[in-house]
Design goal:
Strands 2-3-1-4-5 form a five-stranded mixed β-sheet, sandwiched between helices. The protein has 172 residues and is of the alpha+beta class. It has a single domain, classed as Reverse transcriptase/Diguanylate cyclase domain (Alpha-Beta Plaits, 2-Layer Sandwich), CATH 3.30.70. The chain has six helices and five strands; from the N terminus they run αβααββαβαβα. The longest helix has 18 residues.
């Protein structure tokens, strides 16, 4: 039996994306500014059910089609990789949080309205968003922020959550 996601073009290795994040953080420290980078972590909701009900080959079709949709939606400086079994990571460079939220809305809509696989399955995704800000000091902490945002989004499924929205951490 085929491994889930076998044959999917991941476009970039996760290590390459992490290296870009590290470089952006380093460059921003030299400039004494925050790097204009945002991470979107996208999880296909309930992929395990699709694998159980329709088989792994259908699950693989869903993963491959989702990856193609995501690839068609990223900008020329953005990077996309497979992050986990049913997760994809997008690094948006030279992006604001507002632009990342709009991209998340577009992704949610594109995935929700697409009919996947020969069974014409409708799926949803959950998206975590993290923008680099002063208390994510490292690449690992930045990844941790986007993972936590995704965890919050998965509780509602079919939505996105931002790690520490600005209004949540502004001191009054």
């Amino acid at each position: 039996m085929e491994e889930a996601g076998e044959g999917i073009n991941c476009f970039h290795r996760i290590e390459d994306i992490l290296e870009v994040v590290k470089d952006e953080i380093s460059l921003s420290k030299d400039k004494r500014s925050l790097p204009p980078v945002v991470l979107l972590l996208i999880d296909i909701d309930n992929l395990e059910r699709i694998n159980r009900w329709y088989g792994r080959s259908t699950g693989n079709e869903v993963l491959e089609t989702a990856s193609k949709i995501l690839m068609s939606m990223i900008g020329p400086r953005d990077l996309l990789t497979r992050f986990g079994g049913d997760e994809f990571l997008i690094l948006m460079r030279d992006a604001t949080l507002k632009e990342a939220k709009e991209k998340a809305r577009q992704i949610l809509s594109a995935i929700k309205t697409h009919e996947f696989a020969s069974h014409k399955i409708r799926i949803s995704v959950s998206i975590g968003i993290a923008h680099y800000f002063s208390f994510a000091f490292s690449t690992d902490e930045f990844i941790g922020c986007v993972v936590e945002a995704l965890t919050l989004a998965q509780k509602e499924a079919g939505t996105f959550k931002v790690f520490m929205e600005e209004e949540e951490w502004n001191e009054e």
